[in-house]
Amino acid sequence: MPPAFPPPPSRVIDVTVLLIGAGYASTSVGPMEVFHAAGTLWNRLNRVAAEPRFRVRSASLNGRVVDSTCRLGLLPSCAIGDIDATDIIIVPAAGPDLAACLADAAPLLPWLRHWHARGAYIAGICTGVALLAECGLLDGRRATTHWAHADALRQRYPSVHWQPEHFLTEDGHVFCGGGVHAAMDLSLFLVERFCGHQVARQCARALLLNMPRSSQTSYAAMPLARPHADPLIQRSEQLLRRSLRQEHSIEQLASQVELGPRSFMRRFKAATGYTPGAYLQLLRMARARQMLEDGDASIAAIAAAVGYADLTFFRRLFRRHTGLTPSVYRQQFGPQHAAT
Questions:
Q1: Burial level of 191, CB count in 10 A (0-12/13-18/19+)?
Q2: Which of 31, 42, 94, 319 satisfies CB 3.0 to 4.6 Å to 127 for a cystine?
Q3: pLDDT at 193
């Protein structure tokens, strides 16, 4: 069960939002606006006295202007060394080059460890979660990040329990958000966590935001295969793509590329990261998603087209892979007025 939300605090909560060079500005500005609006914007719109719940400051390494990835200059309130009290720290999304971002943000790491040790809640957004992992704050904890970076982070930080299918995770005093837009989800989640559901819902309604989501699997591209140079397995992959509706035994697949079954299984898994059966299932789900997004075929017709005669099984499998039923997926991502 989710943790019980604490009662509204008796004092204003201090929030520090970091500004990181070459990062995504919205993942700093968005949280600042959400926290600033909590207890104030809804009240003002309804002509009642404002009750600010958070005191928000922005901070960069040296207190100077930070240029975002789109070359937008962000002027911080102060340098990180000027922070003498904080309850929550928001680590925004870094740029797409994780290695460069980790190197540039290295001075932040001891500062984050210091405040975590003092009891501050630390929240990382998208690739900003990598900074938390680099600090060691995620060791042995559940965490999420953007789906496209999940494999790289899993390899770099194997002691973290990565759950990229989730938009948000909470483990102890550490929170993670899955993507750039998850900055708003995570901020609203923290408002709810510290101030209760009513304040969070009022804040969301005032800003015309949805309450936080839990899954990002419906936004992730199917991880069909990692790059490899095994020509026989590449040939087998092509065969599977051309015959989605067919069932394939290991013996048949192996014989098509002139390998023994055991050798084929070993090479297929080493090259792609998947067993042949799991790989075929991913291919089928990717094709089903494409059909739901681009056409108006019925769910039953799509299930049959990708090799599933049992419609109930197909619906269950699709939901396991995407977090949504086929009908809901089509409503969110498909053409308007499509038949279901």
A1: buried
A2: 94
A3: 84
